[in-house]
Amino acid sequence: MTKASLINNDKNNVDLLLEPIKDGETISALTIKELIGASDFKDLYVNENNIKNAIAELNDVLKPLQEKQVGREIRYQVLERIDATINISIESDEMEASAEITTAQGGQHLTAKAILTAAQEAGVKKGFSKEHLVKLAQLAAKEAPNNQVVMQIASGKVAINGKDAVIKPLVESAQTRILKPKKREDGSVDMRDLGDIICVKVGDPLAKKIPLTQGKQGYTVTATPLEPEPGNDIELISGEGTCISAKNENILVSEKVGLPKLIDNGMEVDEIYKIKDVTVATGNINFTGSVMIEGDVTEGMTVIASGDITVGGFVESATLEAGGDITISGGIIGRKYDVEKTEVTDVAMSVNISAKGSIFAKYGQYAQINCGQDVRIENQLLHSILNINGRLWLGKEETADGKLIGGYIKAGTSVQAGMVGATAGSNTIINFEHKILKFKEQIHDVEEKLKATSESTTELKNAVNKLKKLPKDKAKPELLTKVVASYQVHAKEMGIILEEKASLETNLQDYMCSVYILANEKLYHGVEMIVGDFHDRSRREYGPSKMRYYERKIHIEALVHSE
């Protein structure tokens, strides 16, 4: 029988050696592969063509031989030791680079250093992970021959944009202080202890500007720098009673003794008038600055301040007017009034709270509230009349979980509470008319302007037509040129006015679709929402719901709270 063996050659590969003996038995390609599979060379690359060539030549040699006659040896290289190969790919944004290794077939494995070198030669210059290089080399060495192993070996670094400049208050405002009442030693809260730290002295630091940062430069794996966007700058504003420190341009200090108040990008200091209670004994208060009342404002009293008003106790059937914010630690209590059976224009509540800024109170009932910004009532608001430009929020600072029962509310943006309305079906009317009326006024003004311009344009157009129809001997070309030019100016102005009108109408619709009533727990029947000429009311009890306007109708939608 022909002998077949595998032997190393001088190229460190393996040859197939055939010693032909004619005896009737044949050797096939399958026989050779079985020989390779049983040898120490099974992981090497198999040259299929050379195996076929060797078998073909063997048959040619055996053909003329006599039985048992030995022919010449046949030798072909059929197995090759192939080293591992590597392909480096760089993402289009150059923020990642990966290596794909085709594992060795009896040849040399790639070391971590070799992978690094290949990546560098491919253009990867930065962001290598030593851990990944070592891990990839180890995985490829363990993987079966002629398989692919892929791993990310380098990553770029995204530029970190700079931080915006911010203004950090260094003192508490009166409202901040009252919303965090002082705890007693036994753990209870003293709602009337406002503390002395609200008042500042001359030279006290009030606010600090933390300058913008430039950010940190990033890079791609090809070492292209990625420049960060610097933060936005803001100016530290020195309000009334404050100035920029002579020692540090980023520090705002007080110029007088008074009450610190937050303003946009800065602070101001009001003169402060501090009193225990406002009663018949003290008389009414009318003060240029801020007023701090440690206790209550009793029935029939009036407090007017150009700045903030801070009340540690209750306001009962009294009047408060502030040029800034009003903060009431207790409640706003008016005398009971049958609001539902009286026209809103005829209602005169016994307690009136009015602020150009925001208003906060623990609770309110039978109150008239006018506010230039937002109103927050922590617990509940009953049968009151509100006229506010901003938002009405019933509940804690972070969660609208309070109750709104009855009353007539004109709001600017939204009304949010835990429960809106009551099981008794008390009428709760919420009207978003402030901005709508302003938009309508603006649209009316634009329409008047459009009407006037249209009339002038028509007159000029008629004049142009008349001048063009004049016979040549009476033609007035200079006058025609002037009239045409004037007509063109008016026509262009009409186009601008029409665009202005379209923009206002779009903004009006956008606003109408942006306002809403939110009931995080219950929406009872009898809650009416008015948005311009559109209104509707709830006719049954709902779970968590949102009332809003769209597509010329008021809709009530169920809220889905995510866990």
UniProtKB/TrEMBL annotation:
Keyword Coiled coil assigned: yes
Record InterPro entries: FapA, FapA_b_solenoid, FapA_N, MinC_C_sf
Sections of the chain in a coiled coil: 429-456
Domain Flagellar Assembly Protein A N-terminal region as annotated: residue spans: 86-264
Transmembrane segments: none
A GO biological-process term: cell morphogenesis
Keyword Coiled coil: yes
Keywords: Coiled coil
Protein name: DUF342 domain-containing protein
Origin species: Litorilituus lipolyticus
